[in-house]
Amino acid sequence: MPKFETISQLEEYRRRLLAQRDAQAPQVLVCGGPGCLPMGSEEVAAAFQQELKQRGLAAKVILKESGCQGLCARAVKVMLRPREITYQQVTPEDVPEIVEETLVKGKILERLCYQADDGAVKAKKSEIPFYQGQHPLVLGKMDLIDPTSLDDYLAAGGYRAIPHIFGKMSPEAVIDVVERSGLRGRGGGGFPTGRKWRLCRQVPGDVKYLICNGDEGDPGAFMDRAVMEGDPHAVLEGMIIGGYAIGANQGFIYVRHEYPLAVKRLSLAIDQARASGLLGADLLGSGFNFDVKISKGAGAFVCGEETALIASMEGNIGEPRNRPPFPAQHGLWGKPTVINNVESWANVPEIINQGPEWYAAIGTDKSKGTKVFSLVGAVNNTGLVEVPMGTTLRQMVYELGGGIRGGGDFKAVQTGGPSGGCIPKQYLDLPVDYDSLQSVGSIMGSGGMIVMDEHSCMVDVARYFMSFLNDESCGKCTPCREGTKHLLEILTAITKGEGQEEHLALMEELCVTMKDASLCGLGQSAANPVLSTLKYFREEYEAHILQKKCPALVCRPLLKYTIDPETCTGCLACVRECPADAIRGEAGEPQELDQALCVKCGMCHAMCKFDAVKVES
Ligand SMILES: Cc1cc2nc3c(=O)[nH]c(=O)nc-3n(C[C@H](O)[C@H](O)[C@H](O)COP(=O)(O)O)c2cc1C
After folding, report:
1. Closest ligand 1 atom to 306 CA
2. What pLDDT sits at residue 14?
3. What is the pTM of this model?
4. Domains in the chain, ordered, with CATH?
């Protein structure tokens, strides 16, 4: 890789690269995203390498490990280009057959393809409903490139935005474009990105900083991780543009230490960019100096909050502080600092490439562009999706998500991470954007979307999120520290059947105080899971408190297990599993469950193959 000293050297290199590459050459892209990696994608890639070598095809077939290809529940996925055949649940044992049948003979292996409800086989990515409603912009290069290859990024049009700006656009003009695009921060707050940049540019000072917030502490969220691991140069390219716009020469990427692969890929991308003159002094002869360093976080959720993040980077305790002053005015080491989310940065290059009008035409009136969500829970198709803002919840659940798993009933969707809200069925046609979600008591957050069916207890869901928030509250301010603790105590009591009628009003009062008086967004939004479930699922709270029943059959202390003598075969599977020796009886005879000894662990119910263990509340 040469060191580019001018824009024309970069463009000449790209031209040569594209001329050398045959777009019709067979390519195997094994998904190395967060869903596929733990399911054995490296073993699948190794099997391809070996098989291609053995058959003398290694020089003819390009093998790559790509970023996240979506549809994460069907790991390991393999994309075969140029036909865009998408195979799922591929194991190393499938590889010889794929090579022989598909790569050599051109036949499609139906057993590895997506099957629709009516049994129709969907071999191509464009035919699979999960991908059809998507608009991949940030995730657009994920199944095209090897994230460790700068050449791949360049060949896919990467670092095209830099020549657009150097020598052609003033920093103010760049800010103007970002402002006109309508991009709002993808880290949760939805603050207009261009406005933040302008504010920082206008603050006097020679030294300014940029930060990419890759903390991503929401349980179940892996959007930012997928981008950092799967397309790290896109983040760097966005940051170079941001640095030029605000007048910063140093950027930092804050990544939690639980994301070692993201750190590795970003570090490699930084090294590659430095070696090729895309980072460092006098970028492409523009006179602009810019470099990026990685700063590792220890994994506290609150350190995703911008002022706590800055404190943690400065070596102080990761606790938030009052704003104003905002980081754009007084940030890292007291200098004006722009902090944006990973996805926000990754949006910037395409905004410059395609123009603000193009970007603003995607999405809704006040929420422009696309958003990446981690669609998980009780849907058939789970994984990372990127949709235009304004896509309805119904489309997310029933089209992309393929409906409720097992044909069950939709109950709610929880958006926005731990401090988001639970949205009930009546809002299935709600467009997903910043303002609509807020209007029903939830938030966009960073893009968590958990779909729940009738097997979810909404009181237990609220208790789960409150337990997370209570653990993660930094304790600096009293409303959050004490509020999350008391809410958790009350919710736990209710799920144990120890709730009292006055608890509901008490929780509402606590929630209002926390919203009004907490220091940062953690405490201010911690009430959302409680308030939204109280608003839309109050009857479930009442059932727990007044009748001591859990209608969803989730809260174990409120359940009663019995053995139906008519269906019990006396196979003793439940007896062997029962940790409390609560089940007695002869082999081959119906068993009896002693209620006084039962610890309600549910193991007997889970083990019984004959549906003889009944559960009621
Ligand atoms: C408790 C808490 C955790 C947060 N975690 C993150 C995070 O992991 N990533 C992120 O980008 N923003 C997070 N934020 C939002 C940041 O404070 C900040 O608004 C964001 O990084 C700004 O970037 P954006 O404008 O591009 O969204 C968090 C906020 C709070 C209150």
Report:
1. 17
2. 97
3. 0.95
4. 7-132 (3.40.30.10), 158-360 (3.40.50.11540), 370-453 (3.10.20.600), 458-546 (1.20.1440.230), 559-616 (3.30.70.20)
